[in-house]
Amino acid sequence: MTVSFQPASGPARRTVVAAAGAAGLAVALTACGGSDDDASAAPAPSGGAADDAANGGGTGGSSGGDAAGGTPLASTADIPEGGGKVFADQKVVVVQPSAGEFKAYSATCTHQGCAVKSVSDGLINCPCHNSNFSVTDGSVSSGPATKPLPEVRITVDGDSITLA
């Protein structure tokens, strides 16, 4: 008895292997986030951090009605001078660069969208790829990030810090 095999119709093996490789690459890129140019990598926690920063927000101080409608974050005593605190649920980091000066930045690293985890020695630290940002202005102190953390508007009323 002789058995003969007929080639199956359908995509060639090379096509199947190439498609599987492309699908795997797409999954890997999605899991790691986008590039530095990806606008979605650093969402604005307050719904417009870039606009707020451009309009002078984020440096603290009392601003009347903003505190009433905002989200309470912390007491000024909770934020150490030269350091800060990450509020993961609000995706914001609040810092005190110098005595009595409070600022807030997005807690989403501008490199690939990881959450920053700590503030120490005047730096906001991202554990994913070791990017560090200055507490003074959110600028990159060491990469791979190339863009600063966007400033987020907060208000300081007495000893209360509120996300505007």
TrEMBL record:
Residues 36-54 have a biased composition (Low complexity). The keyword Cytoplasm does not apply. Residues 55-68 have a biased composition (Gly residues). It holds the Pfam family Rieske. Its cofactor is [2Fe-2S] cluster. It comes from the Bacteria. Residues 71-163 form the Rieske domain. Residues 1-33 form the signal peptide. Residues 36-81 are annotated as: Disordered. Keywords: 2Fe-2S, Disulfide bond, Iron, Iron-sulfur, Metal-binding, Signal. Gene3D superfamilies: Rieske [2Fe-2S] iron-sulphur domain. InterPro entries: Rieske_2Fe-2S (IPR017941), Rieske_2Fe-2S_sf (IPR036922), Rieske_Fe-S_prot (IPR014349), Rieske_Fe-S_prot_C (IPR005805), TAT_signal (IPR006311). PROSITE patterns: RIESKE, TAT. Iron-sulfur subunit of the cytochrome bc1 complex, an essential component of the respiratory electron transport chain required for ATP synthesis. The bc1 complex catalyzes the oxidation of menaquinol and the reduction of cytochrome c in the respiratory chain. The bc1 complex operates through a Q-cycle mechanism that couples electron transfer to generation of the proton gradient that drives ATP synthesis. This is Cytochrome bc1 complex Rieske iron-sulfur subunit. It comes from Streptomyces cellulosae.
